[in-house]
Design a protein that fits this description.
It is built from eleven helices and 14 strands. It is of the alpha/beta class. Among the domains are: 154 residues, P-loop containing nucleotide triphosphate hydrolases (Rossmann fold), CATH 3.40.50.300; 67 residues, Alpha-Beta Plaits (2-Layer Sandwich), CATH 3.30.70. Helix 5 packs parallel to helix 6. The chain binds adenosine-5'-triphosphate (ATP) and magnesium ion.
Length: 319
Amino acid sequence: MNNEMKTPVLQIRHLDKTLGNRRILKDVSFETYSGEVFGFLGPNGAGKTTTIKIAVGLLMLDEGDIRIAGYDLKRQFEQAMALVGGIVENPEFYGYLSGYENLKLYARVHEGVTEERIREVVHLVGLDLRIGEKVSKYSLGMRQRLGVAQAILHRPRLLVLDEPTNGLDPAGTKALRDIIRRLAHEEGISVLVSSHLMSEMEMMCDRVGIITDGVLQSVKSIEEMVSATAPDSVTYLLHVNDALLAKTLIGAVPEDCLRVADDRTLEVTVPAEGAEETLADVNASLVKNGVRLYTVVHRENRRLEDVFIELTKGGDQIG
Ligand SMILES: Nc1ncnc2c1ncn2[C@@H]1O[C@H](COP(=O)(O)OP(=O)(O)OP(=O)(O)O)[C@@H](O)[C@H]1O
Ligand SMILES: [Mg+2]
């Protein structure tokens, strides 16, 4: 089902917020849906945390409307909040208690969280084997996962995580990312996750909204975002025994598309359309003329990182 047909879990409309005398959020509108990971991406100071704090009820909005599964944050605060779980600042735990004991304590905040549900969330975040250990012995990654477990105890429809992978090593990041994706895709939770790392978002999210300077620039699926700015050319790095000689032997592409990077590396830039066939011709002519061709590396001209930089370097022209 596409999103237009579904009811949003989180709906933010015309959100405005001024702190001190600075307008921090400017007419921000977007929606998140059940079963998706929505990435909220922006550089430092863009307004991610401010938006998130408002969405989880930690900060009042000035203007606009927020609905959670249809409940209006202003008029039906408690009903709305009952459907939200989140980690905004680092989750606080009692270090001298076990992970399980911490969850049990926290479960008392909510009605109807059974022991079985606690076991279930522990399993969902993959802490089964370590949940009996004192939290003081946990790694940062384990603490974050315990935080997620705590945040979903009461079966929220919306899970909000502000930069959850901050400070985690690659293994910890991957573990958390896998959990987040599973919660959305298998448990049907709508997950809103912020980050300033494009590559992180690319791997974790289904859709991404880019915010800069309090303005939501665009909301796109990862695929749309990449293809909307698809490269029109592709560069290959050819590792050969003699790059200078190789350059003189290639007839399939104009000379100004060839660059000798070093003695043994030739850069070949070809139009993206039909790039593979062109490359095959290039390779064939080299081999035919006696050049040793060791490896070919495809250099991606555009990563999402570049798209991000482009989208965020000022300009309100992106829609
Ligand atoms: N209490 C406050 N009073 C005045 N300005 C504030 C206050 N809190 C935050 N700001 C400003 O609001 C802007 C947005 O802050 P916010 O924390 O939402 O950004 P962010 O996107 O989460 O950034 P980061 O990536 O650094 O976490 C920043 O310029 C910040 O300095
Ligand atoms: Mg922040």
